[in-house]
Write a structure and sequence with these properties.
The chain is α+β, with helices and mostly antiparallel strands. The protein is about 30% helix and about 20% strand. The strands form 2 sheets. The chain has a 3-stranded antiparallel beta sheet. The longest helix has 13 residues. The protein starts with a helix and ends in a 6-residue tail after the last strand.
């Protein structure tokens, strides 16, 4: 059962209109400890078509509710932005390490592990930085 008040608050704060699909997808992210691929979301929600789910994910990402997760699976995954990251419309500020479990295949956000300081040469300027650690997660040990 979704925590409707919390979901409505998140949607309102991120300027996203409340719809049945958005409530269902956001509830799935809030109750999932790992990043989700589009296919997994489609499978777990079931009643919505692929395009509607894609549009919902795109809207959530643009509004700072979720972020893309890069891992070695080849599938684009998404995870909820940390409440402490202060992600906003078109501005993600959740710079943290992602951990991909080589046993179960799940990818987790390690929100409490910040990026190490990286000094690029002056002629380089990065816009986004992804850092993926691989190994065995606490659930598979």
């Amino acid at each position: 059962m979704p925590n409707t008040a919390h979901i409505e608050s998140l949607l309102t704060n991120h300027h996203v209109r409340k719809t049945k699909i958005r409530v269902a997808v956001l509830d799935l992210f809030l109750n999932n400890p790992y990043a989700l691929a589009h296919a997994e979301i489609e499978q777990r929600i079931g009643e919505f078509d692929r395009v509607t789910i894609y549009r919902t994910l795109k809207s959530f990402e643009e509004q700072g509710l979720i972020h893309r997760v890069i891992d070695d699976s080849g599938a684009m995954k998404f995870a909820i932005c940390s409440p402490t990251s202060n992600c906003q419309e078109h501005r993600h500020q959740d710079q943290h390490i992602h951990f991909s479990c080589t046993k179960c295949g799940k990818t987790f956000c390690l929100d409490t592990v910040p990026f190490p300081a990286i000094q690029l040469p002056p002629e380089y300027h990065f816009v986004k930085l992804d850092l993926l650690a691989q190994g065995i997660c606490k659930h598979c040990l």
